[in-house]
């Protein structure tokens, strides 16, 4: 099939400047989505774009779809802390993402950049995700105790619940990390009497942190104050997530998706506010997390529907939020897009990588493009009906077939 002139006009060979040309002028968050995990081509695109954003547009931070607590170790390394690069990357990325060379290269380059600049200009890396994995969620106790420790160093002791009470109510970490709880709510401790009481105490501590902000912001070390807020969000978010895991109603899986994306949105919101004086932030995560529309996934017999982190953040930031989706054409020898999908039409263009104006793409394909039916559960195609909610599209013509949970 030959590409139409209108389709050719909608696309340019990929370059970072071609992407930034599509962004609203008041962008504070550039959300770059990936259509599936585990593809080095998208990590390379992200790294190339981030280097351009740092050099030409004043970006000084990146947030990735990874454990927000584990990422603290990476950021400390970027700031000059001792460590072995491979170990830092392996331990600092959740979901097994530390195994990907593109993430190693990102951290290597950021540390090298930081070695030659003032502290105020150094690059930071954040984890946007909660400490969650496919079949387990972290226990809330460690973050709750870190929050308590911070507050105890600055506030009168009678304002705080006893640390021993938090430890007693929480119990062993293994109670919270039971893998079987992902599918069996009866195996979760998230709605026990102890968990409910712990959730109330976590709310009290979080309220104390917020209500004491004038004092704490003035006397605490900025990094410790930032981390206290992170631990407050993490502890309360995990307690909500564990309560959702213990729910037995028909909305259980929807609730889990809502809780995860709300945690991501709250983390990103805090990151944007922290970085406001230093520059905009690049965010990198799955398209489904960053899109402006609601997320939809078919999971067994369940049709899941929830508001994505991107939709929540876009509601809060307005035109300060920009979303660029990525997509691919061929994956390996057996996964080819149908010719009447957006991916199939873009694959008729000869360039290996394209930057696409979604408005021109919508006009060029109006009435003749369908949503791609994925070959497996790891990919979600571009929706022709949602192009008006996208600020840009980056298209990679061909990628290899992944192995493992991201495309086996």
From TrEMBL:
Gene3D superfamilies the UniProt entry points to: EreA-like (biosynthetic domain) (3.40.1660.10), EreA-like, domain 2 (3.30.1870.10)
Q: Which domain of life is it from?
A: Bacteria
Any single Pfam family the record assigns to this protein: Erythro_esteras
**Which CDD domains does this one have?**
Ere-like
Query: Which GO terms of type biological process are on file?
Result: response to antibiotic
PANTHER family assigned to the protein according to its UniProt record, in alphabetical order: ESTERASE, PUTATIVE (AFU_ORTHOLOGUE AFUA_1G05850)-RELATED
Record-given protein name: Erythromycin esterase
Q: Which organism is it from?
A: Kitasatospora cheerisanensis KCTC 2395
Q: What is the lineage of its organism?
A: Bacteria, Bacillati, Actinomycetota, Actinomycetes, Kitasatosporales
